[in-house]
Amino acid sequence: MLLSHHPSYKLFRWNTIHGIDYPIADLPEQQRLTDLETQMDKGNHKSALQPEAIEHVTKAMHSNISLGYTIPITLDGIRHLKEAVVYLIGLQHQLTINENGAIIPKKRISHDLSNKQDLKRSINQRVDKHQLSSVLYGYALLPTWTSDDGHEIGALLTRLPFGSSPAPANFSVASDIICDLAPSNDLTQCEKSDPNKLSSPLQHLIPETKLLPTNIPFSEALEAQCLIT
Question: What pTM value is reported for the model?
Answer without folding.
Answer: 0.62
